[in-house]
Each structure stands twice: as C-alpha cells, then as structure tokens.
Task: structure prediction
Amino acid sequence: MIEIKPEMLETKNSNVSLNVIVFKHQNSNEKLLEKTMLNWVCDAVKKYDTIVVEYNLETPELSQIKNNLVDSNFTLILHSFNPLITEKNIDLCIDYLVLRKEKLIKLPFGFVCETNYIKNLTEIKEPVLFGGDASEFLKIESNEEMEYATEVLQRRIIKNLTQKEVKIVNPTNVVINANVCVESGVTIFPFNNLCGNTIIKKNTVLKEGNTITNSEIGSNCVVANSIISNSTICSDCFIFPFNTIGNNTFVGANCVIKSYNKINNAYIQENTKIESFNEIGN
Result:
C-alpha cells in the first residue's frame, strides 16, 4: 500500500482527461437525505464526464470496465454503494496516479487507471492499493449503514453551511436535506426540518419547530413552529407559531401572520396582517 501525502498533490484535476464509470447496483436509488446513493456518487465526480452502467453480478468486473471505456487518458471506476465519497478524496486518488505515474491504483471499491493500460489487461494482479481515507468508501447496504451514512452526510451539510456564515443552534436537532439552499446570515434553531427544494434567503431566522418543504422563505423573515409547504414567503415577514401554510400559497413582503391559521392556495398581498384562528384559501 502506498501512503498518500496531500502536500504532494499539485495537479489541476479539472484539466485531466478522465472519464468516470459508475456501476449502478441494486440499492442505487435508496435515498439519503432525499438524494439517491447514485446521485451522491455522481455529484462527487460532476466535473468529469461520467457514464452510469448497470452492474452485472454474473460478468467479471474487468470485462464490464473494458466494455465501457472511452477515449480518455485516465479512467475512474466507482460504485453506487459508496455515497460517502467526496470530490476531495477522488481528486486525491487521481492526483496520486498522475504524479506517481502509476498505471493502476486499486481503490477499496473500484479503480483509477490509465485507460490504455486497463484496456489491454486480461487480469489485474497485485495492484497498487489506495492509501488514503478508506472510510469514504464504506459499502452502504444495511439499515444500520444507511443510518450511519445519513449522519455523516448531515454533518457535512451542516459544516458547509456554517462555513458560509449560517448559524445553526444545536445542529443535532436539525434536519437539512440535500437539495435545500440556505443563504448566509440565516439562523436556524433546533427542531427545524428543511425538505425538498427549499430556499431560505439571507438573514432569516427559523425559530424552533418548523417543517418547511419545497418552499422559498425570503430574506429577513422570522418563522416560528409552523408547517410551510409548496409556498413562497417574501421578505420581511413574521410568521407566528402554529400556522399551516401550503398548496401554492404566496405571501407578499412585510406581512405578519399570527398564530393558528390555515392558509392554502392563497395570495396574500404585501403589508398584510392576519390575526389568529383563520382559514384562508381553498
């Protein structure tokens, strides 16, 4: 096994002529934080040309690789059951292959290699082994492994957001799914569940207990203990606790919605104040 030292890495991988083959396995459409395992893998290599191929358990892996090679200097072979891999770790593998002028490196699952070299192989014997962080290549199959992978991916999402000046109070009690966009200056308190293609814009405060799905919350809003789905809340709104807002509702800027309202498929003009205990819309 070769030890990989990050300080050795100098190549610009975006300029490397490399094709990626991702083998799709039976559980590839299982979702972690609303993104399939296959898509987690593909996102890690999104800057490269990638093809997805159904894996055949009855066909030797080398044959399947050779049948899907294209005209590139290098080829990376991955598997859909490794959703924890990151762009950084993939770049590490590629850099090491290029800098050390290796022909082939065996990853915990898959390979990175010179295309012409593997094209002419009949058998892979005593390959050079990957010496980086193998934990990202954990094979995810069981329910326990799915739960573990979800925790790891959630921590990564939260870490990325905090680096972008999003404040998350007690992140262990917050769920932020993969397709959610949170802008800088947002504060998220415990027991918030952000789902689907949700956007939370700058400097908004999500107080405790919200569930927000496929919705946009404008900048400088305060939202507390409410359920919002498939709706748009414009900037500078104050949503009190215990509201349910859904079904393509639009709330204009600078509105106040007090508690215990049910609002569905409604258009609320800007500067509107709604008192408590109302049913509005269809």
About this structure: The CA atoms of residues 221 and 236 lie 5 Å apart. DSSP finds five helices and 28 strands in the chain. The two ends are 65 Å apart (CA to CA).
